[in-house]
Amino acid sequence: MSVPGSVVVAGASAAGLSTAEALRRQGFDGRITLIGEEEHPPYDRPPLSKEILSGSWPDERVWLRDDAALAGLELDLRLGVRAETVDTGAKVVRLSDESAVSYDELVIATGVRPRRLPGTADVPGVHTLRTLADATALRAALAGSPRLVIVGAGFLGAEVASVARQAGAEVTLVSDIEAPLSDVLGPELGELLIGVHKEHGVEVVTGTRVEEVLVSGGRAHGVRLAGGRVIEADAVLVSIGSVPNVEWLAGTGIEVGNGVRCDQYCQAGPGVWAAGDVASWHHPGLGERIRIEHRTNAAEQGMAVARNILAGENRAPFAPVPYIWSDQYDLKIQIYGLPRGADTFAVTEGALADRRLVGLYGKDTKVRAAVGINMVRPVRAARALVATPTAWEAATAVKEGVTP
Amino acid sequence: MHITIDEDKCCAAGQCVLAAPEVFDQRDDDGIVVLLDADPPESQYAAVRDAAAVCPAAAIAVRE
Fold it and tell me: Could you tell me the CATH superfamily of domain A330-397?
């Protein structure tokens, strides 16, 4: 394969920018068209539910690169337009401003959007949190100690609960599962975190579906739960997961399912690649098809795609150790690997009671993931046990006297 | 090459330490990045560029 003349990257968030930067870093001097639906320059999303929501940062701090750095990439940067469809035969992407752009290689980095409760899309008082505009709208809604109902208790809902409580809001966190966060962290840590939220004054309602968002006078004023309980609220945040932005690829021949279906090289077809939240790929180390909606993966996968685009026959499988973090109150939660699917868990340093620990997740007698709570350096040391899946007994036997 | 870091942005992921352990470290208590060498030797350039690229908080700026 020869070096491409042009690369079109659909999606100008972390994965798209990372792809473009890595192409340039490796000396690619052809045209790179970076297409972003939002008007903003590429920006970072993890702070939206943390520093931006709390107001501790000015909004501009989320820009991933300053003007000079962005200009230095010499991109064909198209902001405020959306990729509408692609002709994979002619190798042309059509945009929402009715322009068209040709490519030798296409990188799909269109991300995900929040899943919504039916019928709530444009109802004032109902929030989702994905964009900077979402974050500033929710921040405004948190002024004046309002009552906030959060529907869905994943990391996003939990982070918002944390910020909202600290901003003085009255917070109810509603989850349809019995043990929120235990699907991602296991029952021990899920319970620990929910306990922390309760201590901070969050009302946590578990195992209960929200039947309806209550609207009167064109504005949401609460939710009705299964069983009939009504929770009055000034604002409702819906944080029940995300949906990959793949509809624009319908009829293009690019295979989509839960995201863009790629092989182990992050390639979805001839001249088509995907990176970031939207990309589902076969992880050769885990032996599973996965899709990761987290910031670190976006950057790493963008870099991998750039390398593989330029590598020709020497392309390499993308087999990262996934890294995820979440900040809630004074807890920093860091995870290497994928705890989901583990069959065992053990604390190897620190203690649950201290809320300061390193824990390992095991599956089939090997370490599958490591988690740290407020133990930053030790959990980084434990990453090695995940990178090369270590025998469970050996990994959990050395816990005494370890100096990370 | 000259490196600057933004401690306020740092999210303590430690990805920079994994990429370039001779240039970056983390504080013990909160994991915030510690810059060991703001003007690293050429042998470190590639690792430092990777570290800056993979930082999930865009907290590392590299000037060349």
Answer: FAD/NAD-linked reductase, C-terminal dimerisation domain (3.30.390.30)
